[in-house]
TrEMBL record:
The keyword Transcription applies. Pfam families: HTH_1, LysR_substrate. Belongs to the LysR transcriptional regulatory family. It comes from Desulfitobacterium metallireducens DSM 15288. This is LysR family transcriptional regulator.
Length: 298
């Protein structure tokens, strides 16, 4: 590949580690070092400060990093356009997803894509909405799928499906014994929450703010699995996506609390997020089609 040295340099610059870059690229560390030395010889200057404690770019290295990102993006676009002419979906697709989407929707979608497009390489990064938006803005992702709100001025946003949110509790919890749970019933409960920056946490905070609910106490977990386990163990109640609790409902480990419909509408949007100046590749179009197909089934 004609831009392989630049891709290796870019990876070292981003990871700040020769060994981590070698691991990510499935290369030997001496091989990575050789590519960097060859680049330094070509440009006639040192590009990277390297010591036992740190790896940092020199001023010349900073310039090359910025240009390398642009060159690699242009090369990828050219390759994609040529593949489109040939009606072949190849190359790579970097998808970022917040936890609910990444853990409960994307595995099925990626499996469907793999069956149809065997030459397409897909990598998935799962983190909370805030972290995914940051990775997208820094061009570490091609497209993002989130359930939380992101800046509409920086990104292009497109809703692709509605997600049903439910209030859950362990069997035998006092709220599960009521036919309809009112605002008064929900006062001074113990809540299980996701971490700040999570789309689920944002929805929970908005829910409590709108209803002006007072909590007795709260516990914070940084994953859907942690929230579910805490509720199953009797620690408290939680607002979660219905997608993540289907197995627990069947097993009788969790109960959906029946809210009075006048309390609040429990639904949110799943959103496709991309940068306005990013070239929309054939691989991204394929993902978009799979997402819309999934939303029609749901």
């Amino acid at each position: 590949m004609i831009i392989e040295p630049l891709e290796i340099f870019k990876k070292v610059a981003e990871e700040k580690s020769f060994s981590k870059a070698a691991e990510d690229l499935f290369l030997s560390q001496p091989g990575v070092s050789l590519h960097i030395r060859n680049l330094e010889n070509e440009f006639g200057t040192k590009l990277i400060y390297r010591s036992s404690k740190r790896v940092e770019l020199t001023p010349a290295g900073e310039i090359l990093y910025q240009q390398a990102c642009q060159i690699i993006n242009l090369y990828t676009q050219a390759k994609e356009k040529i593949n489109q002419i040939q009606s072949i979906v190849t190359g790579s697709l970097r998808i970022g997803a917040s936890f609910t989407i990444g853990e409960y929707i994307l595995p099925e979608l990626v499996s469907q894509m793999a069956a149809k497009y065997s030459k397409l390489d897909v990598s998935v990064t799962i983190a909370n909405t805030e972290e995914i938006a940051q990775d997208l803005s820094q061009n570490r992702l091609d497209i993002a799928l989130v359930e939380g709100r992101v800046s509409a001025t920086e990104f292009i946003l497109e809703s692709f499906m509605e997600d049903e949110m439910v209030l859950i509790a362990p069997p035998g919890h006092p709220l599960t014994l009521l036919n309809k749970v009112t605002l008064k019933n929900m006062e001074n409960q113990i809540w299980i929450l996701r971490e700040a920056g999570s789309g689920t946490r944002e929805f929970s905070d908005h829910f409590m703010q709108i209803l002006k609910l007072k909590m007795q106490h709260s516990y914070v977990f940084s994953s859907n699995k942690g929230v579910k386990a805490a509720v199953v163990s009797g620690l408290g109640i939680a607002l979660v996506s219905h997608l993540i609790i289907e197995k627990e409902l069947v097993a009788g480990e969790l109960v959906v609390i029946p809210l009075d419909q006048e309390v609040v509408r429990l639904a949110r949007e799943f959103v496709i997020v991309r940068l306005p100046d990013n070239y929309f590749t054939k691989a991204s179009e394929v993902l978009l089609a799979e997402l819309h197909g999934y939303s029609r089934k749901s």
